[in-house]
Write a structure and sequence with these properties.
With 174 residues, this protein is an alpha+beta fold. It is 36% helix and 32% strand. The protein has a four-stranded mixed sheet with strand order 4-1-7-8, with helices on one face. Strands 3-2-5-6 form a four-stranded antiparallel sheet. A hairpin with a 5-residue loop joins β5 and β6. The radius of gyration is 19 Å and the shape is globular. The two termini are 38 Å apart.
Length: 174
């Protein structure tokens, strides 16, 4: 079976989810809308197969337990596959056919890693004076994390300047 160029086929294999209804939610401006729905089987497989492509944008899938997984679609990402585990959706995710979703997941992985470090560093700062050596070293670590985040954004700008994700990221610094 050959897919039409102007169609859409998005597949998910999520190990560890229950069988049941899943909803594809699109985001436009500050509004969410139901773009499609389907059913996940007991192995965690589900797909969205359409005769017409999805509009480019930011999407998320509401899983049977009401948790969700996000992804991005552009004109060239209409045929993609995501394989992951419910216990670690983004760190274990393998994406085929969508550079935009892969870039999104790279950023999510970095953000999750940095959030726990930032929380710990901010707790360390609490109640300390600016001249305290621990305060100074914690502030330096916070700056390193900010530099790492900026380098990641610059890497995306240099290596993927025309991708939808890059435009999205730079427009909102999300």
């Amino acid at each position: 079976v050959f897919a039409q160029v102007d169609s859409c086929h998005i597949r998910f294999y999520i190990e560890g989810i229950n069988a049941g209804k899943v909803k594809l939610i699109g985001s436009f401006a500050d509004q969410n809308y139901l773009a499609d729905s389907t059913v996940a089987d007991k192995s965690g497989y589900f797909e969205f197969k359409r005769k017409s492509p999805l509009k480019p944008g930011y999407f998320f899938v509401i899983l049977p337990d009401y948790s969700n997984i996000h992804f991005m679609i552009d004109h060239n990402d209409q045929f993609m596959t995501v394989r992951t585990k419910k216990s670690d959706l983004y760190n274990s995710a393998k994406v085929e056919g969508s550079i935009n979703t892969e870039l999104l997941y790279q950023s999510i992985r970095m953000q999750v890693k940095q959030e726990s470090l930032l929380d710990s560093l901010n707790k360390t700062l609490s109640g300390r004076l600016p001249n305290d050596p621990i305060y100074i070293s914690s502030k330096a670590e916070i700056q390193k994390l900010a530099d790492e985040r900026n380098e990641h954004i610059n890497f995306i700008k240099r290596n993927h300047p025309k991708e939808f994700y890059t435009k999205f990221k730079l427009a909102g610094q999300n």
